[in-house]
Amino acid sequence: MTREIQIGKLKLGGGNPVLVQSMTNTDTRDVPATLAQIRALAEAGCDLVRVSVYDEECTRAVRALVDGSPVPLVADIHFDYKLALAAMENGIAKLRINPGNIGGAVRVRMVADCARAHHVPIRIGVNSGSVEKELLAKYGGPVPEALVESALGHARLLEQAGYEEIVLSMKSSDVRLTVESYRLAHARCDYPLHVGVTEAGLPGQGTVKSAIGIGSLLLDGIGDTIRVSLSGDPLPETKAGWDILRALNLRTRGVQLIACPTCGRTGIPVAAIAERVERELGDITVPMKVAVMGCVVNGIGEGKEADVGIAGGGNGAGVLFVKGQEPEKVQGDLAEILIRKVRSLVGQTGKRE
Ligand code: SF4
């Protein structure tokens, strides 16, 4: 098991629930826009949110962002130890910085001392594209051994400065390389692992790559926090992260849809109902499995894992089933009937947990 690290009010590693994170893509210096995105991500279920901190103005924005954020924030910093110090002074909960890139042992010690004083853990993030030349030469390319040795090399610099509140990541856009690198890191150290397939692409292919990479690791018990990296709006990253955790029964939150693939027996517009249910019940945080099945022949049986569901019942009618109750024949706007039923089960606002 990995060691436990505290990030503000959150616990990471040590067998605690896997945390979902994402990253803003607004200009960090634009506090209202960044705060709006942080809040939207938190609302969607992000446990912590990372923001880029690339100049002094960003470090000043950090204070307002921290004050207005409902979740702990992570500062993403490259090369500049002064930005790291300022972000910590201004209340950031976690840093992402690679100590080997900040200009020597004195600066590493300054960052480590400041992190200790402010209780700020540090994530070391190695990417296959940024592995040191010597390691690439030693191993003949960006192979798992090179990524892990790079990450552990950065970690050693912090350890030598007496600081071990460390999280590691070693990402690649190549799924196999990512998975093998994390497996190796898991075998070699007990630092919590931030898992993700980097630069995975657009939501379609990127979600598949992320689900395979992150999912394979989580199935092996590897990974303490996950980030799905998709091009564009970060909100779909959070949804995908949660979908991965829900698919593996690692965490539950909101509506998990069970919908049949449809076939010749399908008696109701399954896809349209399912899409509407997912869209209109997106605000619900209470864990609930909702089924939309095309027919009663197999529908009720196939959907019996659900808490509530609807199956096509012939001539456009439906059958509503609620766990442990007799199925009820229903007619009319089936999506509306199902949505009302779910809301009545979880309460009007859907926000109660
Ligand atoms: Fe076909 Fe019925 Fe199965 Fe849907 S639930 S795929 S309609 S048999």
End-to-end separation in angstroms reads 29 Å
How many structural domains does the protein architecture include? 2
- Estimated share of beta-strand residues: 15-25%
Broad shape: elongated
CATH superfamily of the largest domain: Dihydropteroate synthase-like
On the 0-100 scale, what is the average pLDDT?
94
**CATH-derived architecture of the largest domain:** Alpha-Beta Barrel
If you consult CATH, what is the topology of the largest domain?
A: TIM Barrel
Largest sheet: 8 strands, parallel
Number of helices: 12
Structural class: alpha/beta
Q: Which ions and ligands are bound to the chains? A: iron/sulfur cluster
DSSP helix fraction: 40-55%
Major sheet strand order: 8-7-6-5-4-3-10-9
Task: Show unreliable segments.
Answer: none
What are the secondary-structure elements, in order, as H or E? EEEHEHEHEHEHHEHEHEHEHEHEEEH
Cα-atom radius of gyration: 23 Å
The tally of beta strands, per DSSP, is: 15
CATH class term of the largest domain? Alpha Beta
In brief:
The chain has helices at 31-43, 56-68, 81-89, 105-118, 133-139, 144-160, 175-188, 203-219, 235-247, 270-280, 296-302, 334-346; strands at 5-7, 10-12, 19-23, 48-52, 73-76, 94-96, 122-127, 166-171, 194-195, 225-226, 255-259, 288-293, 308-312, 318-322, 328-330.
